[in-house]
Amino acid sequence: MSEGPLDLPEAAQRRFSQGAFSSGLSVSDFGACLDMGLEPVGLVQGFCAMHWGAYSMSGLGRGTTPFTGAPGAAHGYVQNYQCPHGMISSEHRTWGQNYQQNWIEDAWRTGFNSAYSRMMAEAQALGAHGVVGVIDGENPLSDTGVVEFHLRGTAVRVLDAPAPSATPWSTFLAGQRLAKSFEAGYAPVSIITAVTSVRVWSYCVTEYLLGGTGGMWANAGAAEIHQIVDAQNEVRDLARTRVRASLHGDVLHGAHLEVSAREIGPGDVEFQSRLSGNRVRRFKDFDPLPVPRPTVRLS
Questions:
Q1: Residue ranges matching CATH 3.30.110.70 in the chain
Q2: Cβ contact 255:247 at 8 Å
Q3: Looking at the domain that runs over 21-52+113-183, which CATH code has it been given?
Q4: pLDDT class for 196, splitting at 50, 70, 90?
């Protein structure tokens, strides 16, 4: 059988001659990008695998001093709690503390930033102006403290624009949400995310209340667990403070806050907060976009 040219429709031949690209966008988000003048050029990804384990008391000195100092110390958040009952027995927790786990935050930031930088390097190699629809994942690879960071998004070029001369911008937004941001006069700069971690070493009152009892000194009625409330408030405030420091005068849109808790032992808890959003910058006044053109007609 002779191997002649493929008998393809003219439109298909034109597509093949222009090259192929990949995209992580839905059909509607893809169409909205084209309407905004953004041409998808490829799916870009970044990976990093990090290992970090529990620190012993001798290792806690890295980045924080949890067993000395006072709230607001130079090495991070530290707050002490003292038993109101006096020395009862060797098992009685006469002292407790909340403290910021800087080494966990540093390890998380290193892993995320490495994966992000690799994704953006792929986009830059494709000649992209930006990356839209960024999705980030964090998954444990084993039960030995190994965590994989995976970021992916769709690199886009601005139609009829000069070749990019700087690092591409990035955003979690895509489709209509991104279009509305442009319509409101805001352009994406980069994704923003921060993780903070606070450990709770319970003292006697917290231990009793978390166990469902106030002990022999309990008063009748409900009781607020102040040490847990303090830790929850602080882990959120630390995340907000870190994100604000990363904005450099820009605005955060689409903020999403997650707080998780892990029980380490009876009365001992670890709280982790993650705040993510889109760093955007105003480039014009509000200017409504034109009514979108219909792509399919039923009659």
A1: 21-52+113-183
A2: no
A3: 3.30.110.70
A4: very high
